[in-house]
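Readers outside the structure-tokenisation community will struggle with the description of the input data as it stands. Showing the layout once, in full, would remove most of the difficulty. For illustration, here is how one protein appears when written out as sequence plus structure tokens:
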Amino acid sequence: MAEHPRQLQDPAHQPRSHQVVKAATAATAGGSLLVPSGLILAGTVIALTLATPLFVIFSPVLVPAVITVSLIIMGFLASGGFGVAAVTVLSWIYRYVTGRHPPGADQLDHARMKLASKAREMKDRAEQFGQQHVTGSQGS
């Protein structure tokens, strides 16, 4: 019983019949997947061979049509993406204004307070500079 798990771990110590069964199973699975793969490849080559003259004949129509359709699709996707972003932002703002505390509200409040304190600090510095400038020009 102790030898059985060891046999499963080391393929060199497995019986020859197990190795043959594994090889046969692998060959069967590989072959059964290789046949449809080859058929699909052959079908693709045949379809491309038949369609190439049509592509060449209709390319003055197809190329602009593909470009136009691509631009239309990209426009709709971009429009939808921006619409989703706008709805998300408006929803976040609504939750923030109503006090529901959306994700990131703490960071926004912290940044707002930091900005307000810097603005006050700059205002005080400007007032000090203005007073120094006024007193300096009066003394001259």
